[in-house]
Structure prediction request, 710 residues.
Amino acid sequence: MNSLRIEQDHNGIAHLILDRQGASANLMDEQFAADLAQAVVQLQQMTYCGIIVRSAKSTFFAGGDLGKIAEVTAETSQPFFAMVESIKASLRALETGGKPVVACINGAALGGGWEVALACHHRIALRHKSVKLGLPEVTLGLLPGGGGIARTVRLFGLQAAMPLLTEGKQFGAEKALKAGLLHELADGEQAMLAQASAFIQANEQSCQPWDVKGYRLPGGHPNSPKLAQMLAVAPAMLKLKTKGVLPAPEAILSAMVEGAQVDFDTACRIESRYFVSLVTSQVAKNLINTFWFQLNDIKAGASRPDGIEAATVSKLGVLGAGMMGAGIAYAAASRGIEVVLKDVSLANAHKGKAYSEALLAKQLQRGRITAEQQAQTLARIHPSEQAADLGGCELVIEAVFEQRQLKARVTQEAERHLPQEAVFASNTSTLPITGLAEASERPAQFIGLHFFSPVDKMPLVEIICGEQTDSATLAKAYDFVLQLGKTPIVVNDSRGFFTSRVFGTFTNEGIAMLGEGVSAAAVENAAFLCGFPVGPLAVSDEVSLTLMEKIRNQTIADLADEGITQLPKAGDATIDRMIELERPGKLAGQGFYDYPPEGKKRLWSGLKAQFYRPQAQLPLQEIKDRLLFIMAIETARCYEEQVLTSSGDANIGSIFGIGYPAWTGGALQFINQYGLGRFVARADELAECYGDRFLVPDSLRARADANQQY
Prediction:
């Protein structure tokens, strides 16, 4: 057997040891299915008093082989279905063998690994931070296919199982014990084995609760009045969360409810059928490609220069204590970094620190941190009005207003007090880094670190290399972003870089459609149904139309200095009209939306009189395509211009940074899954109807002709 082995100890206990040869982790695949079936036969021929399932790796079990899963198609689904059923049959044989089966969990047991543990009668885990338990398959467009749904529902009942399955929650050891996922914790591997042995010796026979005669589903049967009422609205609630574009949560709910009404084996078969259906879907392939392979590559340093030793920042300077600077200070302090938070006055700097105080107070109230942790984090933030306090900082991030002269002034002021090897970063979202670096005495150590608001929630940081930024500076910036627990993408310098540039096409297209006379509600609803977190009109209100106008005017002036004439964009006239009407956005209390003091925001009723034209209405799919295509095309342009150098940075950046719908796998993966030839043809149709902004770059046409995906 290549992936596991059986050993028997002096107490007569059989140890089923998960130990895939030639690999660092245990995987659930064809080899495992065959080996587990063989192990079950071997155990049936042995005399033993119980079974301990444990791992010889540093983790318990890594789950399914996602590379193989991504290759499964409708045509090859039958052998895959048979493999899944074989694994379930083997696990079922273990749990119905009559003898106690104990899982000794020494590390992560996620997905298929946790399903192996669920098939055991007793579960013990190390009391260690490396232990992570749960069923996160939904985040990759899948469902637990190894009996996880059937067992979780029978263990906790439908209502309690729902967040565990449809949200993919993960638990550390202590929380898993409190939640009833584990029966015991152990302080070391030897102690864990001793506890497992003690359980087996104290329980001559064992079976699962659902195999006991008279078992009733916790919380009631799906047809019980209380549950029936909850289940009647559950699909609508899921659609609200998933916007109807992520099929996995619905499939999970269906497998849960259908499986709860039949016997265990039938429930498992229902689960397998839904599982295979999801595995062969394009959405799952998109999500696996981006959120597993590409995201893991980024975290492993795919865009980080090779050959440079990893570095950490122990002291950080933040210039500007507004919302962005305050957010960066909190993100760093919460990760153990000392922060000098500097502003023009000490009062302003203290206001910036108050932002962290408010965030930490909420966490303390919710029991997520202790009072000691709160005090330690706050003690790391040092408000200041003196540039001299920046001495000793390995990295300084300026987060002042988007004014070139102001940024130049604070750069020069700070650099006078920094160590020679320190890195200086700008948090600008639009101004080219190469130009900002002209104010620096060390342009090779000048870089862009574009955080997204609110910093405490947004997982992405866009790292922008100027023309003179050196490899050591990029490596240090990359390491710092990972040190914050955030995801870095690396882009080359250009106006708007990648995220702001592509995001601008989304807001502009929505505003352009409104200006054409399309119903504002149709535009916003189409965005929602695409899977965007916020519609283009709502997010424009958040940004503020006044700021959008200022950025446009700055761009026109900058390009004029270069001898380039900036042509008006399709949404410019509508923005100008809204500003004339004194409706610049949320901060002013009125924009495309009204913001009543009490109640939810609502679209301004005056939009109809100002812009609506009955003959301009578009089919829903046309609006969806315009929003999805314009962003994907601009991303392809960024790739052609070498602003982006990897499809992973493009896909992760578009989802994490600017809200491109997750089901697509990202802006470039959207093109891949649409089919490059079909995408180009559809883009040409849109260009003919709405303008040259929908024309794809030549490199994309060449890729389509060569059938070469991003």
Summary: The chain has a mean pLDDT of 95. The chain is about 50% helix and 10% strand. The longest strand covers residues 13-18.
